[in-house]
Specification:
The chain is α+β, with helices and mostly antiparallel strands. The protein is about 30% helix and about 10% strand. A 4-stranded mixed β-sheet has the order 1-2-3-4, sandwiched between helices. The radius of gyration is 22 Å and the shape is globular.
């Protein structure tokens, strides 16, 4: 009987811990958690990314395109970011990131990963080409290996993008706007531009292509704020 009582007590404790939340736990937004439903001090600051696009149509026409290595490294240092490339179009920052598991809440609830990291036996980079383990060296992400990407920038959580934009603006107050995406094609294109920049080459020959790409990716029409933006939570 005594053994039965002990087992019953242990079962009750376990049930309390897993179901009733009888132990202290942390579920507030932080540098490791961008998607909490709770926050001690709900965000009362204005949106730091795609700011102008909240109210009116925007243009992605730029006169100068260059990579900012310093900002790239600073964004990459954030939890949840695996890699980051920051391109400056005049005074606007265009940020291409990949995501890792060093933080939670980086993606919205309806996001779908583009990457396939299932440890497939055949085909190092793609199961569709099992006898070809080659990959384009300019591609940072192949879709079958590497860090995570998501197709649409709205599938990144609001607070995650907010923290990235705030980091950029705090380090460079001259930045007038910030656009952030983890789209695979966008990330790979920025990686190609970065390689050109690292070689000391001008990015002027790629400016027109870049403008067309970001216009297609982010659009020019005003965005519609979601509920998470309105109450400062995701």
């Amino acid at each position: 009987m005594r053994t039965f009582r002990r087992l019953a007590a242990l079962w009750s404790i376990a049930l309390c811990l897993t179901v009733s939340g009888c132990f202290p736990w942390y579920d507030y937004n932080s540098s490791h958690n961008y998607g909490s439903k709770r926050h001690e001090n709900p965000q009362d600051t204005s949106r730091a990314y795609q700011t102008k696009q909240q109210y009116a149509k925007v243009s992605h026409r730029i006169a100068r395109l260059e990579m900012n290595q310093f900002l790239s490294e600073q964004v990459q240092a954030l939890n949840g970011v695996n890699s980051a490339i920051v391109m400056m179009g005049d005074k606007v920052a265009y940020v291409g990131i990949t995501i890792d598991g060093t933080a939670t809440g980086t993606k919205s609830g309806n996001s779908r990963l583009e990457s396939n990291n299932y440890g497939l036996v055949k085909g190092l980079y793609s199961p569709n080409t099992p006898f070809d383990d080659g990959a384009d060296p300019s591609d940072l992400i192949t879709g079958s290996n590497g860090a995570d990407t998501v197709m649409h920038h709205e599938h990144l959580s609001h607070m995650f993008k907010q923290k990235i934009a705030e980091r950029i603006r705090s380090l460079d107050p001259t930045v007038q706007d910030v656009y952030i995406s983890a789209n695979q094609v966008f990330v790979n294109e920025l990686n190609r531009l970065a390689q050109e920049s690292w070689q000391g080459r001008s990015l002027e020959p790629y400016r027109e292509h870049f403008m067309a790409m970001v216009e297609k990716l982010f659009g020019t029409d005003p965005t519609i704020p979601n509920q998470a933006e309105g109450n400062g939570k995701e």
